[in-house]
């Protein structure tokens, strides 16, 4: 026995349309749940490396920072470090926000000229972030990925 609607559609065609609608809804829900957040920055290894290199070029030289009365934020990094690359947009934002009051220094651990600083500050992993107060005493050190709000909070506390 076949059911037919007023417009001539059969029961099986109605079931097929219903199944197609259910599949479409499932796909849409999946896309909505798994899509990246609108605030997520697009990141590729190349863009991270370029940001890292730009930041290194714009960073305060170590000798200048140590002679300055400002607190100093030292990033020990390596160009090959994907975590360093991934954190570079956040560090660039912090530099933009706090650069007038905190000296931002970047030291490439693969550059032999920084071997003494790598040793003095115990940089055993990258990225390593070392914050020095205005007297250039070590205040805090982080190794690895650190959320931007945590760094900003410590900067705010230091600047009081």
UniProtKB/TrEMBL annotation:
Residues 31-160 form the Thioredoxin domain. The keyword Kinase does not apply. The chain crosses the membrane at residues 12-33. It holds the Pfam family Thioredoxin. This is Thiol:disulfide interchange protein. The keyword RNA-binding does not apply. GO terms for molecular function: oxidoreductase activity, acting on a sulfur group of donors, disulfide as acceptor. It comes from the Bacteria. One of its GO terms (biological process) is cytochrome b6f complex assembly. PROSITE patterns: THIOREDOXIN_1 (PS00194), THIOREDOXIN_2 (PS51352). It comes from Adonisia turfae CCMR0081. Keywords: Membrane, Transmembrane, Transmembrane helix.
């Amino acid at each position: 026995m076949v059911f037919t609607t007023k417009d001539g559609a059969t029961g099986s065609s109605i079931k097929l349309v219903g199944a197609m609608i259910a599949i479409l809804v499932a796909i849409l829900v999946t896309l909505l749940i798994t899509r990246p957040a609108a605030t997520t920055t697009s990141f590729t290894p190349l863009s991270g490396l370029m940001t890292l290199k730009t930041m290194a070029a714009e960073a305060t030289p170590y000798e200048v920072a140590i002679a300055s009365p400002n607190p100093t934020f030292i990033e020990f990094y390596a160009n090959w470090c994907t975590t360093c690359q991934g954190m570079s947009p956040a560090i660039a934002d912090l530099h933009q926000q706090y650069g007038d009051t905190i000296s931002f220094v970047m030291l490439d651990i693969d550059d032999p000229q920084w071997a003494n600083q790598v040793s003095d500050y115990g940089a055993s992993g990258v990225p390593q972030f070392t914050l020095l107060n205005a007297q250039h005493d070590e205040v805090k050190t982080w190794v690895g990925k650190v959320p931007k709000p945590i760094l900003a909070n410590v900067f705010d506390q230091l600047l009081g």
